[in-house]
Amino acid sequence: MQIAKAVSMKKPHIFLRMQAERESNIGGEYDQNSSPSFDSTSSQKDLEDDHLTTDHDHTVSDTGDASRSGNDETEEPLADVHVAETMKQFADWLVFPDCEKKDEKTAKQHVVQVKKVLSIVGGGTCLQSLLDVKQIRDVFLRHYAEVKYHPATIKSYLMSLQHFCSFLLGETPSGVAFEKDNVISLRERIKNWSGSYKRDTTRRRWEKMEEDFSVLITPEKITAFNRSQAVRQAIIILGELSGAHNFEITQAKYTLVRDYLIAQIMIDNANRAGVVAYMTIQEFQRARPEDDRHVVRVLHHKTVNTHGPAQIVLTNHLYNHLKMFLKEMHSRLPLTGLAEGNAKVFLSWGGKKMESSQMSKALSSVFQKAGIDGPMSHTLYRKSAVSECHQKP
Q1: What pLDDT sits at residue 288?
Q2: Is the distance from CB of 30 to CB of 113 less than 8 angstroms?
Q3: Parallel/antiparallel/unpaired status of strands 310-315 and 288-290
Q4: What is the dihedral of CA 154, 106, 2, 370, to 10 degrees?
Q5: Can you tell me the distance from the alpha carbon of 81 to that of 239, in angstroms, rounded to the nearest whole number?
Q6: Helices (H), 214-247
Q7: What is the pLDDT of residue 127?
Q8: What's the chain's Rg over C-alpha atoms?
Q9: Per-residue pLDDT averaged across 9-17, rounded?
């Protein structure tokens, strides 16, 4: 369900019901001349902004999309030249029509997961071990994966291995010697293994729902966040920016304002993290005014092929904050790669694009600064939003 699409543009969003209170709480703060003070803990967390590195360890689901049941592994170095070349060919094959043209992120994750299996069963160098049924079943599945991962993550690894088998059959890379019938047989066995985890996956899904239900983000937490000193500091900085073009931009101030804006977009829209991460300056500039709001349409996101562009609904207040942020803060960053119009709205302090996982880390960071206890992520807030909607008469 796309929550932003379910909301009438002519009626207040149910998650904007605290908006008037928030704006009244901060309405007079633009006139303050004193800069906000940052405690040492908050400053140190801000200075670690560039360490919010992209998490490439989220697993890939059976359909090829990023799964929620990620793991904490890092990509294994490949010392063998044949292994490196084979994995490069595998990565290229994944984005070809032969494999339904997987997107770059999904393809990369499949490669990372096959490399991980290789590091467990073949020391990272013996590609033949990926075709050894007993090694994969006994060493990787039983003694490693079933101890370390949730069922959905295990299924994701098995899907990556199935793709690798299909790659071998279709491309016959020179770095791997194999019998065609053996690879076909292995692929079928891996498929059967994956099916055997269906019951465990369902059970884990219900367990996760219960866990999430116990930590849902309540309207009271959102109200406390909007009244917090961290939010007031962010608003003061934006106010000072509007009247002083020579205002000094520090990393601590930039990350606080950026993370505050990310949080407000989430509160008002309950979008997926990727929608906010991939919103470009050009898309923001094309926002359509509707009554007292502006609607931004984001094309690059997870479900664009089935649901079309995602919508981000901005109040005039938040829209103006974002304009000020782009004009006075974003413009001073060292942009890397894309032209300014195609640059993302939210970047790291070093001018690099932020991935979905970094959005959630930024969100969690600003809520911690606001003194709000408990886990915080875009996914959890979306679940909380749906739960809140279902409770409405």
Answers
A1: 94
A2: no
A3: unpaired
A4: 80
A5: 56
A6: 219-226, 229-243
A7: 92
A8: 24
A9: 41
338-360 burial, b if ≥16 CB within 10 A, otherwise e? eeeeebbbbbbbeebbbbbbbbb
User: Would you state the structure tokens that stand for residue 324, as one six-digit string?
Assistant: 């000020």
b/e burial code for range 309-336 (CB count within 10 A of at least 16 → b): ebbbbbbebbbebbbbbbebbbeebebe
Q: Which tokens hold the place of 125?
A: 């160098």
Q: How many angstroms from the chain centroid is the CA of residue 314?
A: 21
What six digits make up the tokens of 14?
A: 């149910």
Give the pLDDT band (50/70/90) at residue 41: very low
Do residues 345 and 284 make contact, with C-beta atoms less than 8 angstroms apart?
A: yes
**Closest by alpha carbon to 277, among 359, 386, 159?**
359
Structure tokens at 96: 């070809």
Please give the single-letter amino acid code of residue 62.
D
User: What number is the average pLDDT over the span 129-151?
Assistant: 95
CA distance 349 to 260: 15
The span from the CA of 41 to the CA of 381, in Å, is 25
Tokens matching residue 296: 């931004």
Share of the chain above pLDDT 90, in %: 49
Distance CA 278, CA 338 (A): 13
Task: Give me 224's structure tokens.
Answer: 């406390």
Q: What confidence score (pLDDT) does residue 214 get?
A: 64
Name residue, tokens 């106010």. Answer: 239
CB atoms within 10 A of CB 187: 18
Q: Is 72 or 146 the better-scoring residue by pLDDT? A: 146
Contacts (Cβ under 8 Å, ≥6 apart) of 82:
127, 175
Q: Whose CA is closest to 137, among 197, 53, 178, 78?
A: 197
Between 123 and 386, the more confident residue is 123
CA-CA distance, 313 to 336, in Å (whole number)?
A: 28
Cβ(175)–Cβ(85) below 8 Å = yes
Pseudo-torsion of CA 100, 101, 102, 104, nearest 10°? 180
Eight-state DSSP code of residue 96: S
The Cβ-side half-sphere exposure at 194, using a 13 Å CA radius, reads: 18
Query: Does residue 365 have a pLDDT over 50?
Result: yes
